[in-house]
Amino acid sequence: MSEFKVSSKALRATEEICHKFNNDPGELISILHETQNTLGYIPEAVQRVIARELGIPEQKVYGVVTFYSFFSMVPKGKYPVSVCLGTACYVRGSDKVLEEFKRVLGIEVGETTPDGKFSLDCLRCVGACGLAPVATIGEKVYGRLNPSDIKKIVTDFED
Amino acid sequence: MENLIHLTIDNRPVSVPQGTSVLDAAATVGIDIPALCHIDLKGTCVKSSPAACRICVVEIEGRRNLAPSCATFVTEGMVVRTNSARVVRARKTVAELILSDHPNDCLTCAKCNHCDLQKLVTRFNIREMPYKGEQSSRKKEQTVAITRNMDKCILCRRCESICNNVQTVGVLGAIRRGFDATIAPTFDRMFSETNCTYCGQCVAVCPTGALTERDNTDRLLEDLCNPDKIVIAQPAPAVRVALGEEFGLQPGTIVTGKLAASLRALGFDYVFDTDFGADLTIMEEGAEILSRLKAFLGGDKNVKLPIMTSCCPAWVNFYEHHYPDLLEYPSSAKSPAQMFGAIAKTYWANKMGIPREKLVVVSVMPCLAKKYECEREEFKVDGNPDVDYSISTRELARLIKRSNIDFLKLQDEDFDKPMGESSGAAAIFGATGGVMEAALRTVYEVYTGKTLPKLEFHEVRGLEGIKEATIDLGGFPLKVCVAHTLGNARIIMDKLRAGELDYHVVEIMACPGGCIDGAGQPYHHGNVEVIKARAKAIYAEDEGKPIRKSHENPDIQKLYKEFLGEPMSTRAHHLLHTHYFDKSIK
User: Fold this and answer.
1) How far is A67 from chain B (nearest CA, A)?
2) B187 and A58 in contact by Cβ < 8 A?
């Protein structure tokens, strides 16, 4: 019933990550981190492999994946957008910036556009509070954002 | 000698062994600290103290914040206050905050009057809801056995603890965080899409109305009032030692006579007894034990040993879902309730001239998994189930009250014949070790041809999780094992899978203590004495029976003579045996 078809290569990579940590249930978070970084997301099929390798219930893996916002069950977009909702950014209106990203991209937080180009997340502080409100797209940081800037920024990436 | 710790609780000196929680220490001097997420069925493996709810907080001298007494352990010289204004106020606030995200529809809640949260609200003198805010809207689900309404969940984690630590089924767990956090089955699916066994122990420990049984009482009421239906009842052994609790009787009160009378007063056309099915189970399972043993002793290398009991429907679900590679070990014998249904709808219905579609067989069970068992396709003939449906002990109590029957004033009555006759061996099916003991009484006598010098097998009784014994079967040392809870079943199955199991016969029951603590029984509210009292009553019921061995039940003998022939005959196989399926969710 997995939403995304996962390649057998990805499943093998997951097994290898588990082996690297000696299939130790105590290393679940480290394993999830590495899996997230390697595959870009941790879908159900991958979680099942981790549960099997570590000998723990699937529900436990799922519980941890849904607890931490760093882990995602859907593939991130080619250009992952993260809007900072930390205190400094928030008081300078980052909630409105986030709303505009949602409107322009047509997706909710945690989702990816159907063409796989953009995904939208929020985070807490990138250490650039002087530039608040801040958003990052990939490695690039955008500061002093105004909701009216968003449309153009997104269009630049679409080319 | 244990190391005693001395402390003061509410100005009273207390001495308890090291490692005792403040909550338990207080209880030894009669101080009853309220708790909510905490549950501890002492002497069993049912224990959960995640300190999640903070209801049990106490003040400890020298400590800045309040401490959860269920998860704080005594230290030498500790000074504890459980009822200072600060503590009482904090406790009330904690309860009020829990209520701020609770539906508070107590009047119509299935758990009304049995809810631990409701009891605390009364106890804390909460007269208004001071905190108002957003209300969770979480999943609701109605399965054949369990009803789930997570809006009523207070995140106490008892169900998660029992599902993972006690039963090792690993289906229920906490997901997401903050306000979105909830307890859900694997991948937030429906129970029916997971490896849930419907053991229902999550229901048995849920403090609120979040997890309750699927209610079949309205359906039963309709059938009882339908003049075109012949409705017959079969109550399980464990029901008669617990039903009285719902009417204010002491745990362990035997109400067999009143049970029969109440079922008749409800309008059942015939009131029979699942105990009859239990005696029949012993005939079939006993014969299967003997046949596998004889094959083994004859040098058959392929014979599957140990043979495992198959009466408990949650246990059956457990091996079908979790051990599909070991399906040849459990006995093929159906459960007593299903054997009863199969005989009622053939032998008895033919005798009475009642067409199958007119006959409604209702089982009254201490169990929720029995509701699922009734729905199994292999237990149906042209879509018509052998047992139409099952109600729990709790549902029966509700229906009795609703039908204006004053249970306590009922005169004792007997079950109807022929399927109401039973032995003491059948009575003990309701407790862990009971099926084994009943089987041993028959297997011994059939195998050796001698009368048992002593009927009781005390070595398989009691609440210990895994019990072992070696029985002298006329010179052959029969090694038996009895395990209860699915966690203990997993230990046995893992050993079997690894080829490290050295028993001939194994009994498994899914619930702690066996059916007496089934998920359909009156709620024990964490008091293990209730379960012990029920077990004691089960064995008293056995001792009071004139016939105490299944093979000596005259109506069972007659059934074989008139209809079935021999145990494991072709007809017996067709009606009383089943097979198992790989149901693991891949």
Assistant:
1) 4
2) yes
